[in-house]
Design brief:
Length: 136
Amino acid sequence: MIPKYQAWHKIEKKMYSVLSLHLQEDGGIEVFDKWVTDFTSGEKDMATKFYSFDDIELRQWVDRVHDTREDFYDGDILDDAGDIEVVRWDKSKASFFLYDVSEKFRELGIDELDIHAKVVGNVYEHPEMLKEKWWE
């Protein structure tokens, strides 16, 4: 599995697709910003940005694509047959878990996810979907 990431910029309040991680001492993250067109050739090219690790929150892809063909990332808010669940990384268990918000944060294994679950938001762009910010 090749890991994929998204980056939530804390100040801009914007989600980016991560192109590369630079792990050296003065490292950071290169992200996709937008497509630009070369006016002479008409070819499209990627415009990128570079941010410090301090400026962003990394969201790792969870290797789960179901009937909806959606990728699930750390911090996604899911509608799982009417239950609202949040995908989170648990450092102490070194694993992704689902936290069932409708059951007062009952912890579920990621393998308990219904195949018809849908991503309805994430904790960064849609915090209003949750009653409290318990993930910080």
